[in-house]
Every structure is written in C-alpha cells, then in structure tokens.
Design a protein that fits this description.
By secondary structure, the chain is mainly alpha-helical. The chain starts with a helix and ends with a helix. Helices cover 50% and strands 0% of the residues. The chain is built from 29 helices and no strands. Among the domains are: 117 residues, Ankyrin repeat-containing domain (Serine Threonine Protein Phosphatase 5, Tetratricopeptide repeat, Alpha Horseshoe), CATH 1.25.40.20; 97 residues, Ankyrin repeat-containing domain (Serine Threonine Protein Phosphatase 5, Tetratricopeptide repeat, Alpha Horseshoe), CATH 1.25.40; 52 residues, no CATH class. The radius of gyration is 35 Å and the shape is elongated.
Length: 507
C-alpha cells in the first residue's frame, strides 16, 4: 500500500469513527427526548420526508406545522447538529412558529441541548431574537444553562453585543457572577473587551468587582492590561481593589503592558504601589521599560526606585535595553536620566547594548565603569574555567563574555568604543587573542601605545568623583557652576550619537 493510499485509508477510518460518534450522540439525544414525551420506539412512524418538520419551521409554514405537530414523532426528530424542532424554531424571527412548536413539544424540551450544549434560549440570545427569548423565559427556560464551552446565555449576549438581551436575562434572575471558561465571570469578559455599558449593567446588578479567575486576575486587572481606561475608572469607582496580585503580577504590573499612562496614573492615584515586587521579583516598571511605552514610563519613573532589581538580576534599565523594540533607546534614556544605575550589574547591563553603538554609548556616557571590564582575574594566565553555556550573562568577567562564539565578532568594535571612556588598560591573554583577529586591532594598538591627552584624563578624574551621584544628567550636572562647553565635555556630548541623530531627524 503506497503512502497516499495508506493516508486515505486511515483518514477514512478517522472519518468513520467521527461519524459513528456523532450518530451515537444524536441517538442518545433522541432517546432522551422520547423519554420526555413518553414514546416507545414502536410508536415512531417516520414521515416520508424526515426533514419536513424543519423545512416547515424555516419557511414559516404554519399550516404544515400544525399538521405535523399532531404527530408526536415529528417533534422528536434530531438533525445532524443535534437540534430538535424547538431549537430550529428558537432561531426563527417568527414568534408564532416558536409558540406552535413549543406548545406541541414535550415538557422539558426547552432544556434540551444541541451537540454543542446549546439550549433553545441560548440560540435565541445568540441570534438576537428578543421576543423569542422573552417567550422562552416566560415558559420556564433556565437563563443559566451553559453550553459545552461553559458560556452562559448572559455571556453569549455580551459577546454578541446584545445589551437588551443581557438586561432581559438579568431581569429573569440570571446569575450575574456565574463562572465560565477560566473561572471568569461575565464582568471579567466585559472588562477584557472594554464594554463599558455592560460593566455598568453588571455592577448595577450586583456583580462582584473583585472576582478572581483561575489565574487570580480580577476584572480590573484585565481592563488595565488591555488599556480600557473608561472601564478601569468605572471599576475603581465601584470598589475594585488596586492591590490585588495575580499569578502574572499586580494590577499595576498588568497595566504596564498596555503602555497607557492615564491608566497607570489612575492606579497610582488609588494607591497602587509601583515598588511592590512580584513572586518573580518583577516590578511594573520592568514591563513598561521592556515593552517600550515611553509615556507610561514617564508616569512610573518619579515614583519607582530606579535601582530595583528582580531576582534574575534584571532592573528596569535592563528591561528597557533588552526590549528589542523601536522605543527601547528612548526608554533607556528616560531611565538613565532618572538615575538608573548602570553599574548595579555591569556585565548584565552591557550585554544588551553590544550590538548597538547608540545604546552602548548612551550607557557609557552615563557613568558605566569601563575600567572594571578589563580587570581580569586571570591576567596573562590561561583562562581555565568551565564551558559557558547559558544565554544569560551574569556574574561573568567581560573577557569571558565578549569572546564567546556568537559575540567575538563584535569584540574589537566594542573595545574600541570603550577605550574612549577610560585611560590605558591591559588586555588579558584571552581577550587579546580575540582582538588580534579583528580589523580594528591596529587602531586599538595605536591608542594603547600613545599617552592619553591631559584634557581626557581630567575628564575621567572628574567623572570618578561624580559617579557617586550617578552622573544624573541633566538633573545634577546642569547645576554645577561650570561653563556649558565643559558640562557637555563631562557628559561626552561629542559621543552622544542618539542626541545628534534626534536633532538631525527633527530638522
């Protein structure tokens, strides 16, 4: 048997199994319905056209329907969807048809479900048929029976933007806090989608604003995460808690994902703590910085400790530099000017800037300790250490990091730039061997062989004294009693690639 024939064979078997399963479900539904009507299999005499009852319902043929309804077996028919005639009648925009079928159906037929677990009321709600829904509710249909996906008629009304039907279901005592998929309530769904009018409706009907889903997220967390400012405002007015913490973070941390500064400001005004660490050690500003939301970052910087580090060693500055998005450089600048510490974990901070000269010089300009990178504990000795396998650079000396196989091609360019921020340094054996293979090696040798200028050495000395204040340019240096040109020189303005690029673009 060739492959194609074999695949066809197994596919046919799979289709056959699926058909048999479907047929079994239909038969079971039919048996259940017969029990409701008190019929025996011997009582059933199928008409010549088994679909005749469904055809009459779809066409609104009341005469044919009245004729067929007197035959009990016709209303026990189940089609391939698991629908009985009452299901079909519930989705027709003709209340009279529904009344005829309902009156001829067995008691309890309104609670019968399709193969997808849908009741006639559920289908009427999905199709937006208010009159049909009213009739079914008035005649005992439960407003709380969920389909196989655990969606209730109330949630179906919300997902289909049927405000009137949601109001109707609540009037007939639908459970406002009934849980569905992920243990979410209807209010969770509204908050996630940003449906302000439904949020008002549910809260007015007694919905719990602090209900938690399976991940311990509240409606406020979902609204904040998705940037729905109006919904956040409503929930806060109705007593939603801002300090709640889910599995993925605090509500403020989730809000950082939306990058909406108005939401962040609102949460802060209501007492959200920007320095509340998560189980993982993350802070809200980590997420904002990582996602590159500049305006949101400006809201969090004044109230967040810039030195805050999560357990993996990542500070907000690391998050910004590692973002890989269009705004990561701007976010990095904001954090640096707010006093983010570039030397808290120097190797980890530098790794994200190795491939980008703009980012690299920005970090170096703001006080990065370059000389420390060349203080190798091995010196001229052999680097005898275990193979370095992790992709996270932590607690490693610079020479070991920059000489790994996927970074060594950048080593000479990075070292050449770093030499602008230090005086004479020594290269260990391992780093020197790597640098000698690069085209920048002659230029590096020229700098190393010649004495540095007195002007440059004075700048380095002054910056060493300023480092305790973290070179918070322009917050601090602008107040020094020095000429503007000297201030610019201390801040390495001649190497401020980002500012020069910004000025060119603005012109």
């Amino acid at each position: 048997m060739n492959t194609e024939t074999e695949n066809d064979f197994y596919q046919s078997e799979d289709d056959l199994d699926e058909d048999e399963a479907t047929q079994y479900i239909i038969e079971q539904s039919l048996i259940q319905y017969r029990k409701l009507r008190g019929l025996k299999p011997s009582d059933l005499r199928p008409s010549e056209d088994p679909d005749e009852i469904f055809k009459a319902i779809k066409e609104g043929d009341q005469d044919a329907l009245n004729r067929l309804a007197v035959q009990p077996e016709t209303l026990s028919r189940v089609d391939e969807r698991g629908w009985i005639p009452l299901h079909e009648a519930a989705v027709q925009d003709n209340k009279k048809i529904l009344e005829i079928v309902f009156s001829a159906s067995a008691p309890g037929a309104a609670q019968c479900r399709t193969l997808k677990g849908e009741t006639p009321l559920f289908l009427a709600v999905v199709h937006g048929l208010r009159e049909n829904a009213i009739f079914l509710l008035q005649n005992g249909s439960s407003p709380d029976l969920q389909n196989d996906e655990q969606d209730s008629p109330l949630v179906a009304a919300i997902l289909n933007d049927q405000y009137d039907l949601a109001t109707l279901l609540l009037r007939y005592n639908a459970k406002v806090d009934q849980t569905g998929p992920l243990n979410r309530t209807a209010l969770h769904e509204c908050a996630f989608l940003g449906l302000e009018n439904f949020v008002y409706l549910l809260l007015g009907s007694g919905a719990n604003p602090n209900a938690c889903d399976i991940k311990k997220k509240t409606p406020l967390a979902l609204a904040a995460q998705n940037g729905h400012l109006n919904v956040v405002e409503v929930l806060l007015q109705k007593g939603a808690h801002v300090w709640w913490e889910s599995e993925s973070g605090t509500i403020l941390f989730d809000a950082a994902a939306s990058g909406n500064p108005d939401i962040i400001s609102l949460l802060l005004e209501h007492g959200a703590d920007p320095n509340q660490p998560l189980y993982s050690g993350h802070l809200p500003i980590h997420r904002v910085a990582y996602r590159g939301h500049r305006l949101a970052l400006e809201q969090l910087i004044p109230v967040t400790k810039m030195s805050a580090v999560k357990e993996s060693g990542m500070s907000p500055l690391h998050s910004a530099a590692a973002g890989g998005h269009a705004h990561c450089i701007e976010c990095t600048r904001l954090l640096l000017e707010a006093g983010a510490m570039v030397n808290q974990d120097p190797i980890n901070c530098l790794q994200y800037a190795l491939k980008d000269e703009v980012m690299l010089r920005m970090i170096l300009n703001h006080g990065y300790d370059v000389k420390r990178c060349f203080d190798c504990p091995y010196g001229d000795s052999s680097h005898d250490y275990a193979p370095w396998t992790t992709s996270i650079i932590k607690d490693m000396v610079f020479c070991e990091v920059i000489t790994v196989s996927w970074l060594k091609h950048l080593s000479a360019q990075v070292v050449r730039i770093m030499l602008d921020y230090t005086d004479q340094v020594s290269f260990c054996t391992k780093l020197k061997e790597t640098l000698m293979e690069q085209k920048q090696w002659p230029d590096i040798c020229h700098i190393q062989r010649n004495a540095r200028s007195l002007k440059h050495l004075c700048r380095l000395r002054i910056r060493e004294h300023l480092r305790r204040l973290r070179l918070r340019a322009p917050v601090f240096i602008n107040f020094l009693p020095l000429p503007p040109r000297l201030k610019d020189y201390l801040r390495y303005k001649e190497f401020d690639v980002y500012s020069r690029g910004s000025m060119v673009n603005s012109q």
